[in-house]
Amino acid sequence: MSEKAFQFKEFKIEQDRCAMKIGTDGVLLGAWASLEHQPDSILDIGTGTGLIALMLAQRSPALLIDALEIDEDAYEQAVDNFEQSQWGDRLFCYHAAFDEYVEEMQDEDKYELIISNPPFYAEDYTSESASRNKARFAEALPFSELLEGVSKLLHPDGEFNTIIPHKEETNFISLASEFGLFPKKITRVRGNETSAIKRSLLSFNFKKEQLKENELIIEISRHNYTDAYKKLVKDFYLKL
């Protein structure tokens, strides 16, 4: 994707200073995230451009949407994107590492929804850019650290939503259970009908309840999107 700004229906994202550009994963997660309990407080971990926080501001009346970003350039860009939007008064970005933030916030009011499109990498992935690597490589925020922090910041009745490579799903669910988090809903994503499952969208809470599972297929053929995908993202993309 180019460096130029990305125009959504109700907001615009500048991304020239961000290592991680807008991609399908973030849009999927922001559109899929569960708002059935109408959370008043939301935390987006590793916000990057601010995309998911902005999508949730569009979808929900939550009074407090906090976003966290460790990379200075991305943090500054997210702040700008928040300020340019119509929801600037409810969006707050913090420049900090997740462990520091957890340390500082764990005794404060808990978040009713925590969301993260976490940094992960493909084994064959190398990049010239150090900041892109930092954004992409799981070493920057191991799953265990993410889950431990979430377990400390999440409201007892809250939900944690994330998107990860499908091959990590079993491992991630088992790690989550060590922190008292259990899957409530899983949507597995395929590019098209015949391709392998690539991503897992996961919703966790502190209760053990009946797991809901389904699949989402994005395309019928190149740039010909399925009705299910269009229905999910129609409020955001200009041309769909």
Automatic annotation (TrEMBL):
SUPFAM superfamilies from the UniProt entry: S-adenosyl-L-methionine-dependent methyltransferases
Documented EC number(s): 2.1.1.223
Signal peptide: none
Keywords, comma-separated and alphabetical: Cytoplasm, Methyltransferase, S-adenosyl-L-methionine, Transferase, tRNA processing
Domain of life: Bacteria
Sequence ranges assigned to domain Methyltransferase small in this UniProt record: 39-132
Family matches, as InterPro entries: DNA_methylase_N6_adenine_CS (IPR002052), SAM-dependent_MTases_sf (IPR029063), Small_mtfrase_dom (IPR007848), tRNA_Adenine-N(6)_MTase (IPR050210), tRNA_adenine-N6_MeTrfase (IPR022882)
Main location class: cytoplasm
Magnesium keyword on record: no
Record carries keyword S-adenosyl-L-methionine: yes
One GO term of the biological process aspect: methylation
Localization: Cytoplasm
Catalysed reaction equations from the record: adenosine(37) in tRNA1(Val) + S-adenosyl-L-methionine = N(6)-methyladenosine(37) in tRNA1(Val) + S-adenosyl-L-homocysteine + H(+)
Cellular compartments per GO CC: cytoplasm
GO MF annotation, one: tRNA (adenine-N6)-methyltransferase activity
HAMAP family in UniProt: tRNA_methyltr_YfiC
Function: Specifically methylates the adenine in position 37 of tRNA(1)(Val) (anticodon cmo5UAC).
Similarity field: Belongs to the methyltransferase superfamily. tRNA (adenine-N(6)-)-methyltransferase family.
Protein name: tRNA1(Val) (adenine(37)-N6)-methyltransferase
Organism (species): Salegentibacter salarius
